[in-house]
Design a protein that fits this description.
- It is a single chain.
- The chain has 89 residues and is mainly alpha-helical.
- It has five helices and no strands.
């Protein structure tokens, strides 16, 4: 068995499948394109399967596209969703 090349792939798929309706890899790829971090749906599949590594920039963009906490994707937190607070002025 080949070693996984990232630790976020399993949670990427989980977050995508939890959306209603379920988001496709093509949906997430389109969101990433809008965010300025283009990743093809084919590449996302390889990331989800652990066949491709993920850069820090990609990690943050993927978390934003999936609307999840980057720490959750990394398995460092059980808090899946971000809580947005207004910035003090």
């Amino acid at each position: 068995m080949e070693k996984r090349r990232n630790i976020i792939g399993i949670r990427m798929r989980e977050a995508r499948n939890m959306e209603t309706p379920k988001a496709t890899q093509r949906d997430i790829s389109a969101r990433l394109e809008v965010l300025g971090v283009p990743i093809s749906d084919n590449m996302l599949g390889k990331m989800e399967n652990g066949e491709r590594s993920v850069t820090d920039i990609q990690l943050l963009a993927i978390a934003r596209a999936l609307r999840v906490n980057p720490s959750w994707l990394l398995g460092l937190s059980e808090e899946m969703r971000f809580t947005f607070h207004d910035s003090p002025q």
